[in-house]
Each structure stands twice: as C-alpha cells, then as structure tokens.
Design brief:
The structure holds two protein chains of two kinds. By secondary structure, chain A is α/β, with parallel strands linked by helices. In chain A, 26% of the residues are buried. Chain B is of the alpha+beta class. In chain B, the strands form two sheets. In chain B, strands 2-1-10-5-6 form a five-stranded mixed sheet. In chain B, strands 3, 4, 7, 8 and 9 form a five-stranded antiparallel sheet that branches. The chains are: A alpha/beta, B alpha+beta. The A-B interface holds A 59, 62, 64, 68, 75, 79, 101, 104-105, 107-109, 111-112, 115-118 and B 68-71, 100-101, 129-133, 148, 151, 154-155, 159-160.
Amino acid sequence: MALGADRGEAGHEIGRASQLQTRRATVSTRLALSLTIVFLAALGALTGFLGRVVLNELDNIGTIATERLTWNLSQVQVEHLQLKELAHLAEDGEGLHVLRLKFNIFYSRVATLRESPMFAELRSDTEAGEALDRIQARIDHFVPIVDGSDRGLLYSLPGFILELQDNGHDTRKLVRYGLLAEERASAAKKRHLSLTLKRLAWVLLVLVMALGLTALMIWRLFHRSQMLSAANTITTTRMRAIVSSSLDAILMIDVRGRIMSINEAAQTIFGYTSQEALGRRMVDLIVPDNWQRFMMDNMTNFVTAGEGMSDGQGRLQMKAKRKSGEIFPVELSVSASQAGDDMVFVSFLRDITARVEGEAALRRARDEALAGERAKANLLTVLSHEIRTPLNGILGSIELLETTGMLAEEQRYLRAMRISGELLLHHVNEVLEMSRLEAGATPEQYRVFDLLQMVQGLVDGQQANALAHDNQLRLRCRLPGSPFCLGNVERIQQALLNLIGNALKFTESGEITVEIERHNDSDTVEFRVGDTGPGMAKTDLDRIFEDFVTLDSSYSRQREGTGLGLAITQRVVENMGGEISVESELGEGSLFTITLSLPLVSKRQTMPSKKGLDTVVPKRILVVEDNDINRMLLEKMLQRQGHSVDSAIGGAEGVHAVAEKRYDMVLMDISMPGVDGIEALSQIRSRKLAEGVEIVALTAHAAGDDHERIMGAGFTEVLTKPVTQAELAKVIDRYTHKAKPLEDVPDDSDIQQFVAALGEERARGYLSDFCQDVARLQHALDTTGRVTDAQQGEAHRLAGSAAVLGLAALRVCMLEIEAATPDTPLPIVPLAKAWSEAGAILAPHLDGDRA
Amino acid sequence: MTVFVLLLRVMAIALTPAIVFASPSNLEAPVLLVVEVPDQVGGDGLIVQFTLDDLQALPAVSFETETIWFTGSQRFTGVPLAVVMQQVGITEGIIEASGSDDFSIELHMPTATAAGAIIAYQRNGSPMSVRKKGPLRVVYPFDDFPPLKRDLLFDNTIWHLVRIVVKPDMK
C-alpha cells in the first residue's frame, strides 16, 4: 500500500542529492572565481602603476636637469673665455662697453649657478662649491670697478686679466664637476630604470600565472559542469526507469491540468496511448463526470492556496474512468513539484478494484460468521432454557415427593432419580458452559477484589465437603502487599472450585492444601492445589485437560463426571491469560498449579464506596454539626451510603431533634458554640431522650487527652475530623448491629472525598466561599492587627472547615486566632503561610478543569 | 589698428638709417629690442625698435610662476610676444630670438603665443639688469603646464633678449 509513496520518495531523494551537489559546486566555484577576479584586478592595477612609473622614468632619462647643468657649466667656461678675450682687446681703450656687457652676462651666468635650485648639488659639492665661491668673490670684487668710470676700468684691466687666469682654473673645475655629475646621474637613472623594469617583469609574470590559474579554474568549472550534467543524465535515466516500470499509473500534469506525460502502467490501466493522452486535460480523460467538479475545485484550491487534496495520509480514494467508459475505484496520491516558476503535479493512481472486491467479500464472510455466532449463542440460550426447565421440573417434583411420606423402597428410587437428575443437570450445565466459553459469548468482568478474602471464603465453604470424605483442607497464603487486585472473580472462583472439588473428590482421608503465593513486586499470583490422593500416571497428565476425558479409577461412584471439568477450567484460565499445569506421582498425590496475572491495586485506585450501597442496611442518622460544610458533607456521605439523614445546627437543636424523633445513631460535633457536644450529650442522657441510641462524637482535636475527656463524658466513640467514608461506615455498622460486614472502603484524600461527597459544582461553590472568608479574615487581621469577638467566632467556623478539607496548618492558625486574648500576639505570619499552602492545594479544585 | 601699423611702417622706413647707425648714448631712451622683418622679395624689410617706454605702452600682462632659476615664485610683468609681433604685423611663422650673450632660439609663433609667451621687463615689480638676466627675457607661465611641457618651455626661453628676426617662410 505504501509502495507508491516509497517510489516517490526514492525519486525525491535522488533529485535532492544531485541538487545538493550542484549547489555546493556552484558556491565553491563562484567563490574561487570571485577571488581570482579580485586578484587579477589587483595585479592589473599594480601593472598599470608600475607601467606609469616606467614611463616617467623614461621621460627622466632625458635628464634635462643634468643637461642644463652641463650647458650652464660649459657656458660659464665660454663666457669666461670671451671675457678674457675682450679684456685683452679692451687694453687699447676700445670696446669697454662691450666688456662691461660681457662682464654682466658672466655675472648673470654665475648668479644662475648660485641661485637656481637646479644646481643645489653643485653648490654642495666641496670642490665645485668652493670654486664657485671663488669665482663669485672675484666678480664681486670687480663689480664696483666695472660699474665705475672708463678710466678706472682701463686702469684695473691688467689686474683683471690676472684674476681671470685663476678664474679659468675654477671654471674648468666646474666643468669637470659637471661631467662627473652627469655620469653619475645617468648611471643612477639607468639603475633605477632597470630595477623598475625588473619589477614590472615580475608583476607581468605573476599576472600571467594568475591568468593561467584562471584558465585552469575555468577548465575545472567546465569539467565539473560536464560531470554534473552526466550525473543529471543518470538521475534522469533512473527516474525514467522507475516511472516506466512502476505498477501504478503515474501522471504528470501541468498547472492547467493538462497531461504532460503518462507511464506504461497508466496506459494499461486507462487504455489510452501516450499520444492520445498528451495535452488533454486529465479531468476530461480519466475523471468520471460526477467527480469532475470535485477534482477541478481541489486542483484550483491547491494551486491558489496550497491546500492539499488528500485525507492527511496523502491518499485519496476516488473513482476513475477508463477509455472504455468503465468506472472503477482508484487510490490516488498527488504531490506538487515546484522549481522556481515551473510547477507540475505528479499523481500516482492504483487500480484498487480487486482490493475493494476483496474487502467486500471479507466483510460479507465476517458478517456471515458473526451471524453464525449469534445464531449459535441464541441456540445455546434457548437450549439451556429448554433443557433445564423440564429438568428443574423433574427435580423439583422429586424433592416434593421425597417430602411426602413415601415407603422406604420408594424413597430409595426417588433418591436415585434425584441424584441422576442432578447429575444430568450438572452435565448439561457443563456442556453449556463449555459452549459458552468457546463461543466467547460471555464478556469477562474484571474488577477489583480482595483476593485473600475470596480464597478464604472459598476454602471455608468447602470444609464441609472435606469432612465428608474425612479429608483435611488447609489454606496457606503468601500475599505481600495489598490483598486487592484486579481480576475476574467469578472465573477464578470457578477454576479454584473445580480444582479443590476434584482434589476432595479423589482423595480419601488425606490432606488437601491450597496455597496462594505472590512473588515480591510481581503481578503474577500462583494458586496451588495439592492433594495426597491416588495420583496419576505420567502418560495421563496431558490427557486430563482434554474434553470428555476421565481417568479410570477404582472408585466407581459419582466421581465419574463428564470429563469436562478440567477442560473448562483450562479454558477459563487461558481466557484470563493465565496458565495451568499439573504434577503427579502415582500413589503419592497430585499438584495443580494455576498462574494468573492479577495486578496489585493501590487503595486509591479502587472504586468509591458506591458498591457499598448493595450491602448496606439503611439507618436513620442524626447529624449535629454547626459548621455548614461539615454538615453538608456528612449528610451527603451518609446519604450516599444509603442512610436517611437529619441534621441539627448546634447542640440545642440536636437535643430538640432527638426528643422529637427516634434515630438509629447520632453523630455529634463536640466544638459548637452555645451548647457544645458534651453539654448536649449530658442533656440527652440525663433526660433519657435517646435510650439505646449510640451517640458518636466528632471532634477536630486529635489529642489523646481530649479523647479521654470525650469518652469520659459518655460518648460511645470518638471520630476525628475529617471523617472518611470508611470510618463512618464502620462506625455505623458497628453500633447499629448490622449483619453483614462491609468491605473495606478505601480513602481518598480529604478534599477528594469532600468533592466526591458533595458533587463538583456544590463543592466548588463551598470552596470558593471558604476561600473568600479566609481571605477576608486574613485581610482584616493584617490591617487592624486586632481581632474582634465576631472574627473569633468566624475563626472557629473556619477551623472546622479547614479540618474537613484536611488543611491542618490553616486549622491550627484559626484555632489560635479563636483562642487569642488581647495579650497574645496574632499569628499573622503563620496564617499567611498556611493560607498560601492551602491555596495551592485548593486551586485545582476551584477551577473548572479536573484531570 | 591697421592705420597705426601703417604709420609705424612709415616711421620705421623713414627712421631706419638713423636707428641703425645711432649709438645708444645718443638717444634719450635706450633701445631694448629690435624687431626685424626681412622683406621676402629682397627689399629693405621692416625694422622696428622698441624702448622700455614703448614696451610699457603696450598692453601688459603679469603672472606668477615658479622657475628653475630661482627658488620660490617669481612675478613676471611684460608684453605678450604676440602683441609685440603684432606691431610689426606678424602673427605666424618662425622667429629667431637672440640675446646679448650670442644665444639664440627659434620660436614657432602660434605655439609660443598659445603657450602665453611674454617679453618680460620686470621681475617682482623691478626691472632686470643684465646681471639679473635682463633687461628683457622671454618667459612663459610655466606653472600652468604639465611637467613635460614645462621643461620644453624652460628650454624655449631666452635671457638678455635684444633682437627678434622673422624667418622667411619656407614653402
């Protein structure tokens, strides 16, 4: 049935795996590619930068600066020489102005050398700098002469020419410096350029490598995409194989409901070929007319709202239509596959005609069988009635005859008839019982019961039978823990009775021991019935459980039964899920063992005392109690137990009530305002208003001396509040001379008993009133810090209620408040604490929802 | 403008002999610059002389720029070369500028003009003596140009400018 779903899942798994693969590959590749691009960009930038540096260098190789230096230095030399020549020429007195001009030009040149930033290095060079300084000093020396008169100039000419000799040396020095500087600079620049070119070469190398790397990655990407494509192809091929080999029809439908593809199975099931089906609307082809609307609505719903169209399990049962028009049942499962914008529906259809028919056939067979069973049960009932009625008639008549004076011989015959009749009845009952058990017609009744008591009762009941055969019948029990357990009482009794009966039947003057044992912490109980009878041969041990098997015995009396006893017992035990076995030694005896699972039941789990109703004799009881809640509670509890209850509020009313009416028992609260319990009792007893009626005290004080005092006052018994149903029942039982003992009734918690007694609604009402009252009192005490008489009375009342509800701490506080004098401090803090604890306990019972 | 130029031409032709043979001390203001325009067809051509006053009468231009000869910015004031050449009616062609130190350069008129060439007669507000590379020099607003062009311009300057000769066109 789940095959279609599995196939869909398999395909889904394959698809998902390759999808994951693709995604992973894409992410890592994208990352690598981005990194590479960034790297390339960085390299490109670096290249560009270095390239520009190179270009700059190339420009600078022109070394205009050094060229200028050389030019200027050589010009100094030239102008110096020109000056010298002119100086010589001017000795004649001619061309002085030209000399002056040339001097100025020379001055200008030297000034350039001294001022221009271009020649800073020159100036800082030791030799060249000094030479320059000397030249400057010289021309400075001659400036005033040159600027002076012609005559002065003429006069100074020889000295000037001499100076110019030295000047020549200096200018030559400068020139030499210039050449050296030029060389150095040139070399330096060459080195620098070479370095830059080397750097550029490295960068280019790295760039090329990066490009190579990129190419490699691209190749890898390509390769990977190839592989993915191949994997994809494999996946697709597999999917196709799955789809085509599927036994179920697989249809792929687009968003508009048109068939996109159908597999072979679909073609077989529906009778359409691929060509006939493709492009047509699915609803037109395979959905029967009356379902079409439903289908369309569902599909639209699904597309627009994304709501599924299945029964939660993913499958839908529908009718479909073959090409021939035949309508047949199908099981259908649809799922949507969405990838981006592309959405398709894939639906699996299974022709379930055979299955549906099979189910129908099974159902028919089952119904027939059930009918047969019912008929059989009816037959049994009818038979049992029809057979037993005449038998009872016969037996009854025989009994009557026996009592009308008959002759001894007639008595003998009558006795024989009776015994036979009883035997016949017994056999018939056994057969009917057998049939009933086989038919399973009787539902098993499991309930909680006291195992120990049951067995004891059983054994006690058989003591007479045992004595009849001079046998000793003993019971031994080992039942740790609670004797209460869950089981089918009637059947257990039946089985045990059968075994014990058999043991007693077959043993003469012997011992029959019944043992019940439960191992610690086990649900299993073992019942052993052993006898010291004749025993059985090993070969017979298996046979005895069979139907209609009895063993030969030397005692030829009524021990011969139908042979069904053990068979019935075995069935009964097995129906309860237990086991039965036997051990035996010829001549020594036999031991039958039954093992049953009888789970222990704690007292709390046992049912409330409703069943007490069956065994209680109703009494008239008077309840004297001033506290409303307590009174209501007692009334309800007693009424539940089936008694009729009257109540009196306060001692005075109680006395009055007892005077008016006769009661079987009186329950009297001790602590009441006005006439308290003890006072009321003394009045009643002294005026002899309730002779022979037991009066039981109810008190909230559990202290021993109080009990003495109360008993001393003349009460029959003291019950401590809160009183449980069981205690009440016991007390009533004890002091009203009832015949049958009640079964022990278990205790609920005080509050649970309270609620159970009053009913949920009323209990909740009382509880909320109680809570409000306590809260009000507490608030009053908090604010005023003092307590009034009225509040003390209130505290007394609330103490009583607290006692009923089992709120001990709160009760103590209330009593303290009631007893407080102006000197004693009020127990405000303990009260708050007790109240908050009480609140927690009461809370679940106050709100509506109970577990 | 053309009337003025014509007048100048007439004056120049008339005064050429006097100008050529006159010594500086005979004139009241010294001639700083001589501009020659040789005649194409072999005539006398045009020779114009400028004194400082002449030059200062023409529209002046002033700019600040850094140079390779001095530390810090220098302010040059002078006449745009184009304006001076306009006086002799020359706007294009090649001119040869010579200095009193026998140094000469060739300038391509439109280029030099476009580069903002001026004939400077003042540096930092004062006239320049020969010792200070004056009295006239051709300078450009070097700072306005990128380094490459700047270097080129530095090489296209001339100190102690005394003479400009217009080169004949080579067609």
